[in-house]
Amino acid sequence: MGNLSTPKSVQKLQTALHAKAKAEAGYRFYALYDKISREDILAHAYAQCRSNKGAPGVDGQDFADIDGYGVQRWLGELALALRQETYRPDPIRRVYIPKANGKLRPLGISTLRDRVCMTAAMLVLEPIFEADLPPEQYAYRPGRNAQQAVVEVEALLFRGHPEVVDADLADYFGSIPHTDLLKSVARRIMDRRVLHLIKMWLECPVEETDDRGRKTRTTEARDKRRGIPQGSPISPLLANLYMRRFVLGWKMLGLERSLGSRIVTYADDLVILCRRGKAEEALRQLRRIMGRLKLMVNEEKTRICKVPEGEFDFLGYTFGRMYSAKTGQARLGYRPSRKSIKRVIESIHTVTARSGTWQETTELVGQLNRTLRGW
């Protein structure tokens, strides 16, 4: 559960929680809130948030401000607020970042105080829920990554699953219903104070600033009782928990066997690989199950692909018929998609732009390495 930089006391707690959850599938944890406010947990959460950097939230506070105030003093006050149950999250600052298709994606930026608190909760909760997540889910998990998902898709194509439902969900993060999501959490967590924390984070108001600098606050998530903010430390775990419902539902209905199908998911990226002639039924079942989960399939972007006649994109790669550069022979495989190549080239241009500010060579090389590693 931990890594080399994780304090031994935190690792010990995470290992114990994971072992208990793994050994007893029906066990519900009831004394977790006090662990979130532990000094070592909050200190490590703060260190993680600091390493991730990130912009200030609605209060404008950054790490330099906390250094000036005193990190230990700041963490002590947060711990006290949690223990006395006076902690209340601040509104989320919403910004928009450009997507590859030219559209804008909303990103929620919490205050440092809230980010540290959410990360502390993640340190305690993730080992528990990691024991429950099925192998089909690859995102936001220790020891798992997008490249493993890509390799698994290629392996399934080779093993005789040539028909693919290339699925797209309409606003997955913004559509997750709070009541059902909290039921998924409560299946393992019966500590009401922890559930209340998560509920408060889900219902946080959102603050936006228009072109004239005017600020407006909305309570859309609380009013509609759906949606989790993209960008918050707790969102990846919650997104995985709700997607778990789909994966388990698919298996419980016997669709793996009857359709010869296998699922691979990475957050809201989803493909279903089937035996020949089964993709149409798989798509129908996908719509039905997602409807029961109160989610919508994006019909414009969801399609059936038959390999090797056709190609499909998944996690930045194009899958289908490839040709050897040496022999010219055809084979099944994958290559970087045109969209991902274009995105990397644009990122490199941005980093190395002559019109940009002068940078130390080592800093420039570091930025380029991060860009290429991410690709």
UniProtKB/TrEMBL annotation:
Residues 211-231 are annotated as: Disordered. NCBIfam families: group_II_RT_mat (TIGR04416). SUPFAM superfamilies: DNA/RNA polymerases. One of its GO terms (molecular function) is RNA-directed DNA polymerase activity. Keywords: Nucleotidyltransferase, RNA-directed DNA polymerase, Transferase. Pfam families: RVT_1. This is Group II intron reverse transcriptase/maturase. InterPro entries: DNA/RNA_pol_sf (IPR043502), Group_II_RT_mat (IPR030931), GrpII_Intron_Splice-Mob/Def (IPR051083), Rev_trsase/Diguanyl_cyclase (IPR043128), RT_dom (IPR000477). Gene3D superfamilies: 3.30.70.270. The keyword Zinc does not apply. Belongs to the bacterial reverse transcriptase family. Residues 211-223 have a biased composition (Basic and acidic residues). Residues 78-319 form the Reverse transcriptase domain. It comes from the Bacteria.
